[in-house]
User: Fold these one by one.
Assistant:
Number 1:
Amino acid sequence: MYIGCHISVGKGIYAAAERAVELGARSFQVFSKNPRSLKPKKIDYEDAEKAVRFMKERDLKLILHTPYITNLSSPKEDLTEITISSLKEDLHIAEVFGSPGAVVHVGKHVGEGEEFGFRRMVETLNAILGDYNGPVKLLLENTAGQGSEMGLTLKELMRIREATDVADKIGFCFDTCHGFAAGIWNGETYGELVEEMEKTGYLEHLMAIHFNDSKAPFHSRKDRHEKIGKGEIGSEALSRFIHDPHFQSLPIILETPVEDEWEYRDEMEYIRTW
Ligand SMILES: [Zn+2]
Ligand SMILES: [Zn+2]
C-alpha cells in the first residue's frame, strides 16, 4: 500500500522525496509550480535526476498536482491560452520528475452554463494533449461541486474523457472528500461506488487517490478537507479504501489540513493501524 502525503517542493524535488521518506510515506505529491499562479517555472534537471534515482531505489511513488487556479472551461480566450501552455509545461515537469500523472481539477463553467463548460473543457484538453506524445497522463480530479465546478460523478468524468480526441492520454484521480461532499459515496454506498468505478471503465484509468476526510456534511457540495477520522466521513468508511485490493498499487495521498508536514507522519501511522 502506497500511503503518502502532499509535500512542499520549495527546496526542490529531491528534498521533497527525502522528506517523504523521513515521514514514513511510500508516495507523495508536489505542486508543479506555485498553486495560485500559472507562471512558468525554472526546472532544476540535476535535482530532478537525483530525485528520480532516489525514488526508484526506495520504491517511492510521486504524483504531480497542477495549480488550483487552472480552469479548463474558462470562457476567456487569453486565459485559456495561458492554461494550455501552463499544463503543457506541467506535463513536461511530471515527466522530468518521474511522475506518471499530472492531476488537474475539472473545469468550472463560471456562469456560462454546463454545456458551454463541457465543450470548452473538451477543446482545452484536445489543445493540451493533441501533440503530446510523452508517457504522462493528465489526471482529471473529481470535484465537490462547489460553485460552478463540473465533474462530480464518475459518469460525467468518463463522458468528458470520451468526448476528447485524446482519451488515451487522460486518467483520473479520485478525491474521497470531494466525492463525499458531491454525494457520490459514503460509508453505506462504498460498495456501489467501486462497482460503478468498474462498470463505467473509470477504474482502469484511476491512477491516484486523494485521501481526505471532510469537514462538510455528505452532499453539501463544499470542499473542506479534514484530518482522517476527525470529519464527517469517519475512519470506518475511509478504511474501506485502504483494505480494498483495487487500490493497493495506487498512491494514496493525504491532503488534510496540517500546520506542519510532520503531522502527516502520525496520520499515516494511524492509517497503518487499521
Ligand atoms: Zn484533491
Ligand atoms: Zn479539495
Note: The two ends are 12 Å apart (CA to CA).
Number 2:
Amino acid sequence: MASVETHKNGTAQNLLSKAPWTDEQGISMKIYQGVVLTLEVIVLIVKMYATWFYSIYKFFVPPEPKSVKGEIILITGAGHGMGREMALSFAKLGGTIVCVDINSTGNQETVEMIKDSKGKAHSYLCDVTSRTSINEMAEKIRKEVGEVTILINNAGIMPCKPLLQTGEKEIRTAFEVNCLAHLWTLQAFLPGMMERNHGHIVAMSSMAGVIGLRNLVPYCGTKFAVRGMMEAVHEELREDPRDFSGIKLTCICPYIVDTGLCKNPKIKFPSLMKILSPQEAVEHIVDAVRREYHEITIPSSLYYINQMFRVFPRSVPLHIKDFLDSGLEAQ
Ligand SMILES: NC(=O)c1ccc[n+]([C@@H]2O[C@H](COP(=O)([O-])OP(=O)(O)OC[C@H]3O[C@@H](n4cnc5c(N)ncnc54)[C@H](O)[C@@H]3O)[C@@H](O)[C@H]2O)c1
C-alpha cells in the first residue's frame, strides 16, 4: 500500500525528488498515489457509515446479555454500597465473587450474604492504594480461587468541599484510591486476561467524570482520569497486533446514588435526576456489563443531554447547568 511505502522510504515528496524517475514515471507515480489515497478515503467513509448504521440498529435492538456463570469476578470496595450490591447481583447470576475491601467487617458481611443465598464468594482484605498489597493478593487469588476474568474497579472516596479547603493528604488519597489503584489492579490482572484473550474490565467513574462540579475538584479530576485511562487501555488493546477482542471494557458514570458517599446532594428536579438506590443503580451496571457496553451514565438520559450540549459553545450548556441547579453541597 502507498501509505506503507511512504513510511518505509520517507515522504512521497522525497521519493519523487530522490528517485531517478523520468517525467512520465513521476507523473504515473503521482496518479497511482492519488488513486490509492482516493480508494482509502472511500473505504473509510463506507466503514464509518456502516458502523454508524450498525450503532443505530444496536440502539434499538440491544445485544443479548452475556452469561457470567463461572466467571471469577473481583470487586474492589465490595464491603459497602454499590460494590456490595454488584457482588450480590453477580453472585446470583452464577459468578464466583472475589470481594476486596479495606474494611474487613463490611467485606466479610458481603461474603456471608452471598454464601447465605448459596452463592460463591471469597474475602480478601486489601488497601487498593498499595501496589505491593494488590500484587500479593493477586498471587493468593490465583492459587486459591483461579484467574480473575472480570475486574470491577469500584472502591472510591469523595472529599466534598471547595478546593482551597481540601488538604494535601485528602487530595493525594483521592487520587490513590479512585485512580492509581485502577492502574495497579490492571497491571496485576490484565496479563491473565491477555493470555486467554478473555476478560472484562469495569471502572466506576461518575457524572463528575463527565462534567466539572463545584466542591468536587479533586474528585472530578480522578473520575475524568478514570474515563481517560479506560479509553487509552481500549486503544492499547485494539491497536495491539495480537487479538485481544475477547477483552471488553465498560466505564460506569452514575450521578447520585444513595450509599452515603454523597453527603449533601442538592437536586432541583428529582423526577429528572432522581437519587437512585444502590440496587437500582446496580441493575443498570450489571445490564451494561452483560451487554458489553463501552460507557454508560446512570440515568442514561444524562449521556444524551451531555453529548447534545457539548456541541454548543461552552457558555450554552452552562445555562442548562445553572437551570438544573443540582450538585453536592460541601460537607
Ligand atoms: N454514591 C454515588 O453517588 C456515586 C456516584 C458516582 C460514582 N460513584 C462511585 O462509585 C463507586 C462506589 O461508590 P459507593 O457510593 O458505593 O461507595 P461506598 O462508600 O458506599 O463504598 C466504597 C467502598 O470502598 C471501600 N474502600 C475505600 N477505600 C478503599 C481502599 N483504599 N481500599 C479498598 N477499599 C476501599 C470502602 O471501604 C467501601 O466499602 C466509587 O468509586 C464512587 O466514586 C458513586
Note: Residues 72-328 form a domain with the Rossmann fold fold (CATH 3.40.50.720).
